[in-house]
Design a protein that fits this description.
The chain is an all-alpha fold. It is built from two helices and no strands. The longest helix is centred in the middle third of the chain and has 17 residues, at 23-39. The radius of gyration is 17 Å and the shape is flat.
């Protein structure tokens, strides 16, 4: 990952597009997977927490 979150988002969208063709196809896949999990009784999924380190401001 790089320092620019905007660039990270664009790279992630490019990877999704490479796998699924476009973002809409991925969203359909994700919604179907979520509906399947809800039917199985899984109410939510714990996602890993991503912490971004902020540069410390020098004391003035």
């Amino acid at each position: 990952m790089c320092e620019d979150p905007g660039k990270d988002i664009l790279e992630a969208k490019a990877r999704i597009a490479a796998l699924f063709g476009d973002l809409e196809t991925y969203m359909e896949f994700a919604m179907k997977r979520q509906e399947k999990r809800i039917k199985q009784g899984i109410k939510y999924i714990d996602l890993p927490i991503v912490r971004v380190k902020k540069p410390e401001k020098p004391e003035a």
